[in-house]
Amino acid sequence: MIRIPEVRLSSGGKPMPRIGMGTAVYPFATSEAMHVAILRSIELGYRHFDT
Q1: InterPro entries attached here (predicted)?
Q2: pLDDT tens, residue order, the chain (51 aa)
Q3: Is the full-model pTM beyond 0.70?
Q4: Residue 49 forms part of a structural domain
């Protein structure tokens, strides 16, 4: 699995991935397609989702 760069937040020092999965396409894609895309993103290692 590829290592995703992180940044430490000043509010608590916890790392946050610099690369995230955006979901703004929702009105233009079915909820089922978004469900599959999000599950696949998790399998690939994404941990930052912009909802």
Answers
A1: NAD(P)_OxRdtase_dom_sf
A2: 677 789 888 887 788 888 888 888 767 888 899 899 999 989 988 888 887
A3: no
A4: yes
Backbone angles phi, psi at 28, to 5 degrees: -100, 0
Asked whether residue 50 is domain-assigned, the answer is yes
From 24, 18, 14, 22, select the one nearest 5 (Cα to Cα): 18
Radius of gyration of the chain (CA): 13
Helices (H) and strands (E) in the chain, counts: 1, 4
Instruction: List the beta bridge partners of residue 49.
Output: 21
In the chain, the number of structural domains is: 1
